[in-house]
Amino acid sequence: MNLPNRLTMLRILMIPLIVLVMIFPYAQFNIAIGHITFGFVSLPILNLIVLVLFAIASFTDYLDGYIARKYHLVTSFGKFIDPIADKLLINTMLILFAWKGIVPVVAVLLMLWRDTAVDGIRMITAGKGKVMAAGYLGKVKTVAQMSAIVLLLLKNLPFELYGLPVADILLWFAAFISVISGISYFLQAKDTIMESK
């Protein structure tokens, strides 16, 4: 296994660690997690720990792609596992936020449904010998999702101090773009999907 693929696997292995840090019952073990106060916003130190882990995992996504392209280490396994690792990381974060009641479940469901539908579309087109590359809207969606996750972990700081719900706006923007990009994928592959033979 080459270095880019190892970095991708590291990203996947970090996901359970992030889950553990977020859902661990600290109070049951008398572990007190402190807060940092910015104006009227109380930011849990736990959020900062998760943010660091998320940032490291996200950086491996950039790094593995950069190394694979620069040193011609692109492999079939890498093409297969890299997008899965990305979706596992982002969707896990979104599900945890929904579970904690931080974000609306509907927004998360829209994004999960889109990912499932697009994966199905790609499987169908691949079976017909056609490859569907990631589109521009899909990349915009990912950037919006990651930006929303960072701001949600930061309790919308610094925007919260000015009453600007930027984290919520980014989350719903990501959900909207998810739906639009899902429709775009379907329209591109409609003829293949609707084939009767």
Write a short abstract of this structure.
With 197 residues, the chain is mainly alpha-helical.
Superfamily at the CATH H level? CDP-alcohol phosphotransferase transmembrane (TM) domain
The end-to-end span amounts to: 39 Å
Percent in strands? under 5%
What's the arrangement of strands in the largest beta sheet? 1-2
CATH topology group: Four Helix Bundle (Hemerythrin (Met), subunit A)
- The 3D shape can be described as globular
The CATH architecture is Up-down Bundle
What value does the average pLDDT take? 92
**Biggest sheet layout:** 2 strands, antiparallel
Order of helices and strands: HEEHHHHH
CATH class: Mainly Alpha
Uncertain regions spanning at least 5 consecutive residues: none
Let me know the number of strands: 2
Number of domains: 1
Question: What report would you give on this structure?
Answer:
By secondary structure, the chain is mostly helical. It has a single domain, classed as Four Helix Bundle (Hemerythrin (Met), subunit A) (Up-down Bundle). It is 71% helix and 4% strand. The chain has helices at 3-23, 45-70, 76-99, 105-127, 136-153, 166-193; strands spanning 35-38, 41-44. A two-stranded antiparallel sheet has the order 1-2. Strand 1 and strand 2 form a beta hairpin. Helix 1 (3-23) runs antiparallel to helix 2 and helix 4 (105-127) packs parallel to helix 6 (166-193). The longest helix is centred in the C-terminal third of the chain and has 28 residues, at 166-193. It is globular, with a radius of gyration of 19 Å. The N and C termini lie far apart (39 Å). The model has no long low-confidence stretch (mean pLDDT 92).
